Amino acid sequence: MAGVAERAAERLAGVPSYRRGLPGPGPAAGKLSSNESPLGPSPAVRAAITAAASSVNRYPEPESTAEILAARAGVARSQIVLTNGSDELCYLVASLLLGRGRVAVVGDPCYQIDATATLLAGATVRRVPLDSGGHDLEAMAKASVGASVVWIPSPHNPTGVASDPDDLARFMSAVPEDCLVVLDEAYRAFSDRDRRPDVTRLLGAHPNLLVQRTLSKDFALAGLRVGYALTSATLARSLETARAPFSVNSIALSAVSAALASDSWRTMAIARVCEERSRLEAALRRLHIEHYPSQANFVTARVDLSLLAGRLGEAGLALRSGSDLGLPGWTRISIGWAPQMAVLRSILFASLDGASHPSDMMET
Length: 364
Known about the structure:
364 residues, alpha/beta, Aspartate Aminotransferase, domain 1, Aspartate Aminotransferase, domain 2, 2 domains, seven-stranded mixed sheet, three-stranded antiparallel sheet, 10 strands, globular
């Protein structure tokens, strides 16, 4: 009989280990390998975190935060579930709806946590190749027949491509009612308004929809791990029952409340990211480097990272190899501070065009 460790290893067969984005040798601002907020939380959020430290002897009280988030999303309080980052939500969905003999549909390449949660639940992953970096929703609808869950991040990670809202609406109408669609909107705030689906309307029309969101990106709270689900009240109750008690800590809740009350900082941060994203994409076009049109806080380009490694190391910058994300031969570049992005553009021109072109560095 196999021992405990052997049984655990057997369960993990075929489950890839998560490879986090590593920092560069320079300051933290040079870490362009994880999709984090370059500006960090607002002063009001930092003050709230400090003030909350005196009450950590008490269990968290999430009610007011949940009510505010539900109101912002245009749903009832009964339709929202707070989680310890959006990752906890993935595992909750998998534990409730997946298991041996069941199937989950993902794009290929997919957001890795979706596949990991599926495999750990003992279910089968059904992969549908992406179409120009975006989800092939017609093919995914066909693949959803007989499946229990469809995972759809939009904008997608690792490509940054967002699905058209009209296509999403048609997709939802084509998916069987007994299959849950998880629409992950981690990067919604960075996408153009015409690429943001009306989730309130979709939720009202489709009880088999769950919208997944996080406060890690545009709210700059990645280190505090807060996410939430918007779904039917019935499914929300099941998720609440399965969720570990107090999984979102009190300091995180205080930070969220402060962030929601100081939205101007978030608006400014989003604008800066989108500006720098445009500058980076303009530089890639000038260099004739293939890249996906991003609606997220990163850009994924067909760049051999080894060609940049030396200069990146000297500048203290780190990018994310596409090999970690199912896109070998590509590089994912998170959008950082303006000064670091200017250095990065200079490195791209020096490494891939043979010479630096200062006039191109600040192109809009």
